[in-house]
Design a protein that fits this description.
This protein is about 55% helix and about 0% strand. It is globular, with a radius of gyration of 17 Å.
């Protein structure tokens, strides 16, 4: 830990890890996890479980049959894969609007996170700590954003592009940052 006074430490530049390049030759998170095939497997199995889950089934009762594929494309783009969600669905603004007014509860958010982690194990996603840390980091952030968008005072849906997670840390989301 630095011996600098707090005022000086706070004045140091912050590296924007969201935009910082990974080392040359480092696979994207998307590649590491198995690409689109792995994400489609994850979301198909996951949403099969969601339909049977007493906490989550009501939230997804009217789910489009292609919802798992849409979520796989979203996650693919987030983890450094093709920008298919943006091209096909309209990117972050579309994703955000899908959550408006849904009133997602903390119990539902936590259940979604836990069930997705369990499904990642079930379908054989990588279990190395680096992958699981960055995977869960995004899932936690993304579900908390979904709760914000689903609430009474959501941030503007145009506020951000699709976030792209890399192997390093990402900066906190700030609506005017």
């Amino acid at each position: 830990m630095s011996e600098q006074p707090v005022e000086q430490a706070a004045a140091q530049p912050v590296v924007d890890a969201k935009h910082a390049p990974d080392k040359p030759g480092t696979p994207t998170i998307y590649e590491w996890m198995g690409g689109g095939e792995a994400l489609n497997r994850l979301t198909e199995v996951f949403y099969g479980h969601v339909r049977e889950d007493s906490v989550l089934a009501p939230v997804f009762a009217g789910m489009d049959e292609k919802h798992p594929q849409h979520v796989a494309k979203w996650l693919g783009e987030v983890f450094g894969g093709p920008k298919d969600y943006t091209a096909d669905r309209g990117g972050h603004p579309h994703m955000a609007t899908q959550h408006l007014g849904r009133g997602i509860t903390e119990e539902q958010r936590r259940r979604w996170v836990t069930l997705l982690q369990d499904t990642a194990d079930e379908v054989g996603l990588p279990t190395d700590p680096e992958f699981r840390a960055v995977f869960l980091y995004y899932i936690e952030w993304g579900t908390r954003m979904a709760v914000m968008y689903s609430g009474k005072n959501p941030p503007p849906v145009e506020a951000a592009d699709v976030p792209v997670w890399k192997w390093g840390q990402t900066p906190p989301w700030q609506p005017n940052g």
